[in-house]
Design goal:
Length: about 130
């Protein structure tokens, strides 16, 4: 057996051992979790900024929901990811919503509790690619 073949065998053994180790770690829950991508959405009179957000399939997301309005509150609901949940965005308070983008497609987020004229028009799109 030549030196080159011995190196190839060592490399192959290291690869197999590495794959085995990763599989064991995954089964024990010791895999390092991917940190969520933070996206801030501002609720302003009659609009969400940004009103289009693109994320990757299976990407963990943390939405930070805020408003600079002084006397306005907004309801926030994201189709497909928030079935019975409704987040109320209040002045001077940051609310968060964590989820994993597990379904490809276009999903709507909107002001779910219109308290005044125009809030029912507040709509944005989450695009999961």
């Amino acid at each position: 057996m030549s030196l080159d073949n011995e190196k190839k065998i060592v490399i192959l053994v290291l690869i197999v051992a590495s794959v085995g180790l990763l599989m064991c770690l995954e089964n024990t829950g010791l895999v390092i979790k991917q940190q969520p991508r933070e996206i801030t959405i501002f609720a302003e009179k009659w609009e969400f900024v940004p009103n289009v957000i693109k994320v990757k399939y299976n990407e963990p997301i943390k939405l930070k929901l805020v408003t600079s309005e002084k006397n306005e509150s907004f309801g926030f609901k994201l189709s497909r990811y928030m079935y019975n949940d409704l987040i109320i965005i209040e002045p001077n308070v940051t609310k968060t919503f964590d989820f994993k983008a597990q379904t490809k497609g276009i999903f709507i987020y909107r002001c779910e509790s219109p308290c005044g004229w125009g809030k029912n028009l507040m709509v944005g799109r989450l695009i999961v690619e």
